[in-house]
Amino acid sequence: xxxxxxxxxxxxxxxxxxxxxxxxxxxxxxxxxxxxxxxxxxxxxxxxxxxxxxxxxxxxxxxxxxxxxxxxxxxxxxxxxxxxxxxxxxxxxxxxxxxxxxxxxxxxxxxxxxxxxxxxxxxxxxxxxxxxxxxxxxxxxxxxxxxxxxxxxxxxxxxxxxxxxxxxxxxxxxxxxxxxxxxxxxxxxxxxxxxxxxxxxxxxxxxxxxxxxxxxxxxxxxxxxxxxxxxxxxxxxxxxxxxxxxxxxxxxxxxxxxxxx
Length: 261
Fold this sequence. Notes:
This protein is α+β, with helices and mostly antiparallel strands.
């Protein structure tokens, strides 16, 4: 069996920036075990798999530690592969996922993705969260992640979390954010539960963060920066119950996975 594989740096204008994702176009779905093994072998934060349907593509995402319900950068990478390598010619790609329909089209900054907006709510955080981060939050909220709001960009940048403690929390992960010095807001994202201690650039987290900061700052269009070592910029726009995330994607490599029967 041979499977085509692409590695793409998403939310990046050059290689070695943004968030790398593997993308595997499939003719039909393989077993979950095999999909997970491929993701583990790739050892990237996400591997995206898609299969053509009559009205778009069925899309799934796997981390080295398991399948996830939503992933922005690997969706961007999958759209890039379709537009740039597989001859997709319509204006918008419809991906059908466990989190609903995700629409991706070309834009001035590369690609724009329409995702469902998250409505994060204040919560009482477990004591392990405070111990793991070692900071006093301004706010603690949650949806599919714990969202921790801090006072300043410097606080976000200087965090040194205890990943063992974070891996024991019940939600997907922990997203830490604050007002930015040169952008509207900054963030860092930690998902040790899925063997991704720190994700370089996390599109799905901006579905939580963009609506929050849009309300706080009183405007729908925002520029965000994720303060990982690789770093990356995400253009955000909140439109009703959707978040439009925009960024570029760059090829790093392509190849063939060869599996013996």
